[in-house]
Design goal:
There is one protein chain. The chain is of the alpha/beta class. The chain has 27 helices and 20 strands. The strands form four sheets. The protein has an eight-stranded mixed β-sheet with strand order 13-12-11-14-15-16-17-18, with helices on both faces. A seven-stranded mixed β-sheet has the order 1-2-3-4-6-8-10, sandwiched between helices. Helix 3 packs across helix 12. The longest helix is centred in the N-terminal third of the chain and has 19 residues.
């Protein structure tokens, strides 16, 4: 029976005198540790202090997960040093109180357990995780430009060792349930059907607290701790030589010098939480949430069966990813021999992602070779991913349309051909949309969803369904209008062209790439050209900048058969899928800033042309599609273009 009920928490006691504390934050789809939620938890502990239970089990009352972290909006509203320190102290002191209670405590974790949610769980004596694909544990604060200030830096190294803990905290990487259990972050990983029973048994077991053992614990103690600090500091300097991201260095400092207690260093916390970088990364978070919103197509039937035509690199990888996300996928090409390499790639990806033979086999079973194209008639969505040839695509559409379900969606992965021309052969032209993935599909988060400039209401509904599909497969949909290059490729083309002009002037490719990765891009423009293919870069340049002469360095390499990674040589030699880069030299002053501005100007041009609806979406597309340095908040904000709200 319910003993106490607050707005967000409810407390019950069972016949074994166990207290079950359930968090179900009112007015929210997810559990987040807002100020009122934290205040109520403090009140719960007051009640339990007066009448201690045999044990306390904390669980979620939501299907969406345990706790997604702190309330991000509260970070956005911080208005001074005092507010930042108060926010950190609130969580630190509350979780210290929870960790010190006299009775045993256990966090029963199902679904997302992130940031402050994981810090709450680590303040408990025990942690049980439900073995479910939707369960993940992590401290992603660094991705918001802040630090795990509520005890994460203190407790995580004690549980799993300094090396694994620093890796989690400095990258924001999440652990699946089985990995969390194997590292010691969770005491056990159990099926959902027995989770309550195991939690009840475990919290009363009297088992000792989990702690890192052996070499994992040695790395956090003298004399090895200073060595670990120096090694990690070197890695951070190599990854971020210009110090654009202060939070990782702050995490390392708090761990190595202050026992993970941010209250001992108020100036450091003030500097981190009030920094422009933190504000920009919070903006990036909100941009990401806005894109996710497009993927939540309320009232629209989900896509369950996808049929992909074209088993090349893009079509094959789209099919592989959709099957990984739980969809039934039929993959069509002219012969089984053309489909076979896709199945091999699928096996490698599924092993890396799933690490469970049964789940790997289930994903492979959902990916069905279909030379005859029988899947067209059953598919909710048909994706065309054949060569960039207008006549070939139109001929295919004529064949597909007569066999598709009346309400099925037809999509093209074209990166260059206008929808207005492609759809002229269709009896229902409104059903054709663009769903433009980026290579590699498994790593790139953004997908451009393309609608025709003269689309009617039915066409806009089709685009909304396409956005919903993109959300279903865990990607970020960006609505764009049909135009050469859409947003991302239209911005990358002049950027790559400008980079090659510097090569023509005598600047080494490795120097250009080093300058841009130091700026914050995930890959330099020259390596990017090698990756997409020099012939592809030339074709894109001719389409998007027809009046510009191709760079000499590009023409010369294509004439000698150097097409980039796919041929083993381009601007670089390639070995085992990696570019062999000579040591970087000097670059012209202001080159990195000029190249970054080229990207910004190109994005502004597409915004002005109506390719994206507003400046926020332009910045979002550039960050998640080109990797434009997130610490800047996006190229338009960074360069003061348009009317960008912070």
């Amino acid at each position: 029976m319910t003993e106490h009920t607050w707005q967000h928490w409810s407390l019950t006691r069972d016949e074994q005198k166990l207290a079950w504390l359930t968090l179900d934050r009112q007015g929210s789809a997810v559990n987040a540790l807002a100020a009122d939620v934290m205040a109520e938890l403090d009140a719960v502990l007051d009640v339990l202090e007066q009448a201690p239970p045999a044990g306390l089990i904390i669980r979620t009352g939501k299907d969406t997960g345990f706790v997604v972290g702190a309330d991000i909006e509260e970070f956005s509203r911080l208005d001074g040093a005092g507010a930042a320190q108060a926010l950190v102290a609130r969580g630190w002191n509350l979780f210290e109180r929870l960790a010190a209670v006299r009775y045993p405590t256990l966090a029963l974790i199902r679904g997302h357990c992130l940031g402050g949610g994981l810090e709450l769980a680590m303040a408990c004596r025990y942690r049980i995780v439900v073995d479910d694909p939707g369960t993940g544990l992590g401290l992603p604060e660094v991705m918001l430009g802040i630090v795990p200030g509520w005890g994460g830096i203190k407790r995580l190294p004690h549980l799993i060792g300094a090396q694994a803990a620093l890796d989690m905290m400095l990258t924001g990487r999440r652990l699946n349930p089985r990995r969390a259990a194997s590292l010691g972050l969770a005491d056990a990983c159990v099926p959902a059907r027995v989770a309550d029973a195991v939690a009840r048994q475990w919290v009363l077991s009297g088992k000792p607290l989990a702690r890192a053992r052996g070499w994992r614990s040695w790395l956090g103690a003298w004399p090895l701790k200073p060595l670990v600090r120096r090694q990690v500091a070197r890695q951070l300097a190599a990854k971020d030589p210009l110090g654009h991201y202060p939070a990782p260095r702050a995490i390392l400092d708090l761990w190595s010098n202050y026992g993970g207690n941010p209250l001992l260093v108020p100036p450091l916390i003030d500097a981190i939480l009030s920094s422009q970088v933190a504000r920009n990364l919070l903006r990036v978070f909100h941009l990401q949430e806005r894109l996710k919103g497009y993927g939540k197509a309320a009232g629209l039937a989900p896509v369950r069966h996808v049929h992909v035509v074209g088993a090349g690199v893009m079509g094959g990888d789209i099919a592989v990813w959709c099957a990984l996300q739980g969809m039934r996928v039929t993959l069509q090409d002219q012969t089984l021999a053309q489909i076979a390499p896709v199945l091999a790639r699928a096996g490698k990806l599924y092993r890396r992602k799933l690490r469970d033979r049964r789940r790997e086999q289930a994903a492979l079973d959902r990916l069905i070779p279909d030379v005859a194209g029988h899947g067209v008639a059953q598919a909710d969505l048909v994706i065309e991913a054949i060569s960039e040839n207008l006549e070939a695509k139109q001929a295919l559409y004529r064949q597909l349309e007569t066999r598709m379900k009346p309400d099925a969606l037809l999509a093209t992965n074209t990166s260059s051909l206008p929808l207005e021309a492609l759809r002229t052969v269709l009896r229902q032209p409104q059903r054709l949309v663009g769903i433009h993935f980026f290579n590699p599909v498994a790593r790139m988060p953004l997908v451009e969803v393309v609608s025709a400039s003269d689309g009617d209401v039915a066409h806009q509904q089709a685009a909304a369904r396409a956005c919903g599909f993109v959300g279903q497969i865990g990607k970020l949909p960006l609505p764009v209008r049909s135009a050469p290059g859409f947003l991302v490729n239209a911005a990358l083309a002049p950027y790559m062209l400008a980079a090659m002009r510097y090569v023509d002037e005598g600047v080494s490719p490795s120097s250009i790439d080093a300058a841009m990765t130091a700026f914050g891009m995930p890959m330099g423009p020259i390596e990017l050209i090698d990756t997409v293919g020099l012939d592809v870069a030339l074709a894109a340049g001719r389409q998007l900048a027809p009046d510009a002469a191709p760079p000499r360095c590009l023409q010369q390499r294509i004439e000698s058969g150097k097409l980039g990674r796919k041929s083993g040589a381009g601007f670089y030699q390639w070995r085992a899928g990696k570019a062999e880069k000579p040591k970087a030299g000097s670059v012209p002053e202001g080159m990195a800033a000029a190249l970054a501005q080229t990207l910004a100007q190109a994005a502004q041009k597409q915004l002005d042309a109506g390719v994206v609806a507003d400046a926020e979406l332009a910045d979002a597309g550039m960050i998640f599609g080109t990797g434009y340095a997130p610490f800047t908040g996006g190229p338009l904000l960074h360069h003061g273009m348009s009317s960008v709200s912070e």
